[in-house]
Amino acid sequence: MCYVFDVDKEEKRVLIASDHGGFELKTFLIEELKARGHTIDDLGPDTYDPEDDYPDYAKKVGEAVSNSQGRKVGIVICKNGVGVSVLANKFKGVRCALSWSPEHVKSARNDDNVNCLALPADHITKEVALQVSLTFLETP
């Protein structure tokens, strides 16, 4: 596992949140990323609620990444990934990229130093989402 932050390893955290459209993918990613040694903070929701909406959760990630002084990165998930990426980018210092392939997110990390990843749950398989997330977390 490789992080590009200038802080102790114990301080680095991955923040993740979704709305109902990304809940299943979020649950899968949390399990898989933890199994690979990543420290994950689930910012919600805790249970599936078909009436929730992405702003409530993308805001939590955007604020936390913004206030983390480089110690945290975020992953936000909704059906098409656009809404969560737009909202996360409203916070100072957040550079959130919507991505769907390992090659694409690697470029976003290298070229734009993104610190937040938006995933489109309706347009990506769980396996590809995992590879995109791992690439995001492991690309300097």
Question: How would you characterize this protein structure?
Answer:
This protein has helices at residues 23-35, 54-66, 82-88, 102-112, 126-138; strands at 13-18, 40-42, 72-78, 96-98, 116-120. Helix 4 runs parallel beside helix 5 (126-138). The longest helix has 13 residues, at 23-35. The chain is an alpha/beta fold and 140 residues long. It contains five helices and five strands; from the N terminus they run βαβαβαβαβα. The termini are close together. The chain has a five-stranded parallel beta sheet with strand order 2-1-3-5-4, sandwiched between helices.
Given as residue ranges, the uncertain stretches (5+ residues, pLDDT < 50) are 1-11
**What is the radius of gyration computed over CA atoms, rounded to a whole number of angstroms?**
13 Å
Give me the strand/helix succession: EHEHEHEHEH
The biggest beta sheet reads: 5 strands, parallel
Q: How large a portion of the residues is in β-strands, by DSSP E?
A: 15-25%
DSSP, total strands: 5
Adjacency order of strands in the biggest sheet: 2-1-3-5-4
Structural class: alpha/beta
| C-alpha geometry | globular
- Termini separation (Å)? 10 Å
By DSSP (H or I, 4+ residues per run), the number of helices equals 5
Overall mean pLDDT stands at 92
Q: How helical, in percent, are the residues?
A: 40-55%
